[in-house]
Amino acid sequence: MAAASRVSVISSFFNAEDFLAECVQSVLEQDFADLELILVDDGSEDRSSQIALSFAASDERVRYLEHPGHQNRGTCASRNLGLRE
């Protein structure tokens, strides 16, 4: 029997405080247990960063990334950052 594959979910966000917690909870409540959630902050200026950091601190499946200097680099650059990790 082959081992189950690990699933990586990459979610980039920018000023998404109204929806970020719901998004994260949705991923973490999936039946598939062997997953990681990579949250990539694209330079948010609202409370999104704090929300994402809180999830990363409380659940080892969640990782928080941001661009150097907390820059806004766009969706493509943010997804690529997540992919590199």
Automatic annotation (TrEMBL):
InterPro entries the UniProt entry points to? Glyco_trans_2-like, Nucleotide-diphossugar_trans
Q: Name one Pfam family in it.
A: Glycos_transf_2
| Keyword Lipoprotein on entry | no
SUPFAM superfamilies cross-referenced by the UniProt entry:
Nucleotide-diphospho-sugar transferases (SSF53448)
Q: Which domain of life is it from?
A: Bacteria
Keyword Membrane (UniProt): no
Domain Glycosyltransferase 2-like: where? 8-84
CDD domains per the UniProt record, alphabetical: Glyco_tranf_GTA_type
This protein's UniProt keywords: Glycosyltransferase, Transferase
Matching entries from PANTHER family are given as: GLYCOSYLTRANSFERASE, GLYCOSYLTRANSFERASE EPSH-RELATED
Q: What is this protein called?
A: Glycosyltransferase family 2 protein
